[in-house]
């Protein structure tokens, strides 16, 4: 299996043109980025609103759990029959699956902000919107990004599955390889998809670490140094 | 033909209903057997983490890495690693067992590490040897955390099995490939609904199982305890 895959990666023909590795990786990242952008626009405001006001939390969490149980292949094939076009169908399917993790992360982030901190912000005279943008959002940001990480993992995996209804990207190697029983191509596609998922997750994990506000980091340092 | 008519025709056929039952049964087997294997793997990993704390970091990193791998990629690579044919249902069971274990290892290690020192010390003082202490004291105390992880894993496995249809093993997932190939809504809609229902039922059963396994967490009013004493 390893030898076959190495031979596949060594073949220059697999690295150029619209079916080459760089083009397929870009396509895959493109679908993920597009779906994520739409999901962020839809999910972040709702998550912020629910987290800030505390209303509708039960509904939000319940909806998130239902979507986690949704079979991705079913969603993608259903939208394909509805829209009769593979790219829009796949992107709509991807958005549906990416919205709940982003929404849950945003809500959980805002929700987790210490009540004393919110109280202190009101105490120094901050209004609702100021409190949201200057206190709650910065503190919630790492958890929002946690939701984004979950969404990206889901998106990379589902974009590969969507190759079944004709979407481009790395899933093409998997589907085309399976169709002609070219196991080297299948394995190469699987390795590329897995590598892409790992790399994107590491990048976001790094971003998540940078995004922790300095104040919160300092507070954590002082509490961890405190008496045990 | 409207969707309701289509569904009526589809579900009206005895042949279809037999196929649905078979697909549902296969789906249960493919999604739930891995829970068992995954829990066993995670219990093993927890034991390793307790017996030798330096292993905890590595275990957590490996679990995170496994969880990152997209399902379709894992499904197709496993036959090359364990030497099965690509259409073998074992591939899906192995892949989902790995996901379940990966999901459980982190909370498991944290929960075991959170067992109060005084509790383990008391158990040791009462003569519990390490193995009996692990299975009799530490592991039961970690059950609530493990149960939460198992619920997530069960729901996600039930959803992931369908992807297996792309390699010919997918339980209810075959309804999606079938509907797609025939451009027919009914099987896809029925497949999605049955998957959601199955996830709901399994989730409720797991909540019940958790209650049975953690009797000390149940709210017991004093009056009931008195009644039990009197009885």
Automatic annotation (TrEMBL), chain A:
InterPro entries noted in UniProt: ABC_transp_perm/SBD, MetI-like, MetI-like_sf
PROSITE patterns named among the record's database cross-references: ABC_TM1
Membrane-spanning residues: 29-50, 57-83, 89-110, 151-174, 186-207
Entry GO CC: plasma membrane
Location(s) in or outside the cell: Cell membrane; Membrane
A Pfam family: BPD_transp_1
Limits of the ABC transmembrane type-1 domain: 25-204
Residues spanning the signal sequence: none
Keywords, ordered alphabetically: Membrane, Transmembrane, Transmembrane helix, Transport
Protein biosynthesis is among the record's keywords: no
Coiled-coil residue spans: none
Membrane topology: Multi-pass membrane protein
GO BP annotations listed: glycine betaine transport; transmembrane transport
Entry similarity comment: Belongs to the binding-protein-dependent transport system permease family.
Cross-referenced PANTHER family: GLYCINE BETAINE/L-PROLINE TRANSPORT SYSTEM PERMEASE PROTEIN PROW, POSSIBLE OSMOPROTECTANT (GLYCINE BETAINE_CARNITINE_CHOLINE_L-PROLINE) TRANSPORT INTEGRAL MEMBRANE PROTEIN ABC TRANSPORTER PROZ
Protein name: Osmoprotectant transport system permease protein
Origin species: Prauserella isguenensis
From TrEMBL, chain B:
Family: Belongs to the binding-protein-dependent transport system permease family.
Keywords for the protein's UniProt record, in alphabetical order: Membrane, Transmembrane, Transmembrane helix, Transport
Provenance organism: Prauserella isguenensis
Spans traversing the lipid bilayer: 27-47, 59-78, 85-105, 141-172, 184-209
Recorded topology in the membrane: Multi-pass membrane protein
Cellular component, GO annotation: plasma membrane
Domain of life from the UniProt record: Bacteria
Chain ranges of the ABC transmembrane type-1 domain: 24-206
A Pfam family that the UniProt record links to this protein: BPD_transp_1
Name listed for the protein in its UniProt record: Osmoprotectant transport system permease protein
GO biological process: glycine betaine transport; transmembrane transport
PROSITE patterns: ABC_TM1 (PS50928)
Places the protein is found: Cell membrane; Membrane
């Amino acid at each position: 299996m390893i030898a076959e895959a190495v031979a596949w990666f060594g073949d220059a023909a697999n690295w150029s043109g619209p079916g080459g590795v760089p083009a397929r990786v870009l396509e895959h990242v493109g679908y993920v980025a597009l779906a994520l952008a739409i999901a962020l626009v839809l999910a972040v405001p709702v998550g912020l609103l629910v987290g800030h006001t505390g209303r509708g939390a039960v509904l939000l969490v319940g909806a998130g759990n239902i979507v986690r149980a949704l079979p991705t292949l079913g969603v993608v094939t259903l939208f394909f029959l509805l829209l009769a076009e593979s790219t829009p169908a796949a992107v709509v399917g991807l958005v549906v699956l990416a919205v709940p993790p982003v929404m849950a992360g945003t809500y959980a982030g805002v929700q987790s902000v210490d009540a004393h901190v919110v109280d202190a912000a009101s105490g120094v005279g901050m209004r609702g919107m100021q409190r949201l943008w200057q206190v709650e959002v910065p503190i919630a940001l790492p958890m929002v990004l946690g939701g984004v990480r979950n969404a990206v993992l889901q998106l990379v995996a589902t974009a590969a599955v969507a190759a079944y209804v004709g979407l481009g990207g790395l899933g093409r190697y998997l589907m085309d390889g399976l169709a002609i029983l070219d196991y080297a191509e299948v394995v190469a596609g699987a390795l590329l998809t897995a590598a892409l998922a790992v790399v994107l997750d590491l990048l976001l994990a790094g971003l998540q670490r940078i995004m922790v506000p300095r104040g919160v980091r300092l507070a954590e340092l002082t509490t961890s140094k405190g008496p045990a | 033909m409207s969707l309701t008519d289509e569904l009526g025709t589809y579900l009206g056929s005895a042949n279809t209903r037999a196929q649905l039952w078979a697909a549902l049964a296969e789906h249960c087997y493919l999604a739930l057997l891995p829970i068992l294997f995954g829990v066993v793997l995670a219990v093993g990993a927890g034991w390793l983490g307790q017996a030798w704390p330096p292993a905890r970091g590595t275990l957590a990193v490996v679990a995170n890495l496994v969880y990152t791998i997209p399902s379709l990629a894992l499904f197709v690579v496993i036959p090359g690693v364990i030497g099965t044919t690509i259409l073998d249902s074992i591939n899906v069971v192995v892949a989902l067992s790995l996901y379940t274990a990966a999901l459980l290892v982190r909370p498991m290690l944290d929960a075991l590490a959170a067992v109060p020192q005084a509790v383990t010390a008391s158990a040791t003082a009462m003569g519990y040897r390490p193995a009996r202490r692990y299975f009799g004291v530490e592991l039961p105390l970690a059950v609530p955390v493990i149960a939460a992880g198992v619920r997530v894993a069960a729901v996600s496995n039930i959803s992931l099995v369908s992807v297996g249809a792309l390699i010919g093993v997918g339980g209810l997932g075959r309804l999606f490939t079938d509907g797609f190939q025939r451009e027919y809504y009914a099987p896809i809609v029925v497949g999605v609904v049955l998957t959601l229902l199955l996830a709901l039922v399994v989730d409720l059963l797991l909540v019940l199982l958790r209650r049975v396994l953690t009797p000390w967490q149940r709210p017991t009013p004093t009056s009931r305890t008195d009644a039990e004493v009197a009885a």
